[in-house]
Write a structure and sequence with these properties.
Number of helices: 20
Distance between the termini: 28 Å
Shape: globular
Structural class: mainly alpha
Helix content: 55-70%
Strand content: under 5%
Mean pLDDT: 84
Order of helices and strands: HHHHHHHHHHHHHHHHHHHH
Radius of gyration: 23 Å
Number of strands: 0
Largest sheet: none
Low-confidence stretches: 164-168
């Protein structure tokens, strides 16, 4: 197995997904859908043979140990691996071309969940299962890559913890980091937890009334925050509000990385209640739904003096679930979201959901967006600056670590936030050049950069759909998905010549 250590990440992932193609084979064989089974079997076997040939070619080549090389391998995986994943989809769905299939698989692989298919297309269940598998494994890849690659490089949100006194030692730490050992270690520790929790959630959804396939796909979509569904949302599921509560409970894993790992001192889960990202999430799911509820309550009083208590509870729960769903960039829509608006006759501005999507979930999780830790760092820096306006000579407490978090951490968070806004402006401009109006361009740009594809169906007027936009617009959206999943700082790190020096 020594030759396996010399393989690039792309080759390992290609072999992994070649094996994963046998899952749809067994599923289709059980349903006696032999055409689908043969298609995935032939493609999986061919790609497996191709992987072996490529692995033999790389076995005699020494593997580049630079961390920037591993980041580049991951970037190439996001760009090129969906091509292989899209080939069986293109073969099985004659109504689309290879580029549309690539768009679909890239959306799943980046856990965006933007689909070209609608309820009228009647896509086979095996393809829905394949989409969910790709999204689930894509989320797992991001969990492992965030801890194994981005953490020692100080990227993907970990730059918030970087202090100025550590800058001189950062380059040495990056060069000496054993990325392959870190990837193996975190894979061994995360995969069993990730898989076990998905199975547990699937069983809970089945007990709640969902069909087994629906339960499995929704469980995988919840943990990967991809929002993929074979019934086009949880509105088509049978579990009702019980299923929504189960999904909301498991979405906490997209808020804090301590749900999967220990912290630097080995305390991890025991300090979850003190995690700033969790606390910020609790504030959001408390204040925002209450404000929305009060707004709809006032509208309901104007319509009728008699208030239906069940409708009031449904309106409150719809707001809580939607805040949790879009804050974690999952994109599931509650069955009671429409009830909360029809109850009062008032609509809810899509800007609220767009803002939640931009905030995103926790660092080193499957969620996208700016990330809550960066938002908290900017908040703490803002509070400190306002304090200094009144007390210019004051000295903030909480130790050197907290001061570094408010200074260098907030500075790094501000840089990322500016890069995010610049990327957003460029993508909005690019969408506008394809003929899409500004409002829809903004929604599409935020959906891609925040990796929350279902946002366009609840933030707009309902006329926007991925299947109706032009091919250039789809290409721009593909760029936005890769940029949003990979983050601009990581791409800048690839282009930094200092990391490529010997």
């Amino acid at each position: 197995m020594e030759w396996l250590k010399n393989q690039p990440l792309f080759v390992i992932l290609l072999g992994t997904y070649s094996f994963l193609m046998y899952v749809p084979v067994f599923f289709s064989a059980r349903l006696e859908q032999w055409w689908f089974a043969r298609t995935f079997f032939y493609h999986g076997t061919f790609f497996l043979v191709l992987t072996i040939l490529i692995a033999i070619a790389f076995s005699s080549q020494p593997l580049n140990q630079k961390i920037v090389s591993r980041i580049f391998d991951l970037f190439c995986s996001f760009v090129f691996l969906p091509i292989f994943l899209a080939i069986p989809v293109d073969y099985l769905v004659p109504s689309i071309n290879l580029f549309d299939a690539y768009f679909e698989m890239l959306s799943c692989f980046t856990t965006t969940g933007a689909s070209l298919f609608s309820a009228n297309d009647r896509l086979p269940d095996v393809l829905h299962l394949w989409r969910a598998i790709v999204g689930w494994s894509g989320g797992l890849l991001m969990l492992i890559a965030a801890l194994g690659i981005f953490q020692p490089a100080g990227l993907a949100g970990f730059e918030v913890y970087t202090r100025s006194v550590d800058t001189s030692a950062m380059e040495t730490r990056i060069k000496r980091a054993d990325i392959r050992s870190r990837m193996i270690t975190y894979s061994i520790s995360i995969i069993p937890v990730y898989l076990s929790l998905t199975i547990i959630m699937s069983i809970m959804l089945i007990i709640s009334g969902d069909r087994p396939l629906v339960a499995v796909i929704h469980a995988m979509s919840t943990f990967s925050t991809s929002g993929i569904s074979n019934v086009y949302g949880i509105q088509g599921a049978n579990s009702g509000i019980i299923g929504e509560i189960i999904i909301a409970l498991f979405l906490i894993f997209a808020i804090s990385r301590f749900m999967y790992q220990q912290d630097a001192e080995g305390r991890g889960f025991r300090l979850l209640k003190r995690d700033k990202e969790v606390n910020l999430m609790l504030i959001c799911i408390t204040l925002i739904p209450l404000l929305l509820f009060m707004r709809h309550w006032s509208g309901a009083i104007e319509l009728s003096e008699n208030i239906d208590s069940y409708a009031a509870f449904s309106a409150l729960w719809g707001g809580i679930f939607m805040v949790m769903s879009f804050l974690t960039t999952t994109g599931f829509e509650s069955n009671h979201w429409a009830t909360s608006q029809s109850w009062s006759g008032l609509g809810t501005s899509g800007l609220i959901l767009m803002g939640l999507s931009v905030m995103g979930g926790g660092i080193a999780t499957t969620a996208g967006g700016v990330k809550l830790l960066r938002v908290y760092a900017l908040y703490k820096h803002g509070i400190r600056e306002m304090t200094r306006l009144s007390y210019p000579h004051s000295v903030a407490g909480s130790g050197n670590k907290a001061r570094g978090f408010r200074r260098e951490g907030a500075y790094a968070a501000w840089i990322f936030f500016m890069l995010f806004l610049v990327s957003l402006a460029l993508i909005v401009l690019s969408f506008s050049l394809t003929g899409i109006k500004f409002e829809d361009s903004l929604i599409l740009a935020i959906s891609g950069l925040s990796t929350v594809g279902p946002l366009i169906y609840v933030a707009g007027d309902g006329s926007l759909d991925y299947s109706t936009i032009s091919s250039p617009a789809k290409f721009i959206f593909c760029i936005a998905m890769v940029l949003g999943r990979f983050e601009a700082l990581a791409i800048i790190a690839i282009l930094n010549p200092n990391y490529w020096k010997k």
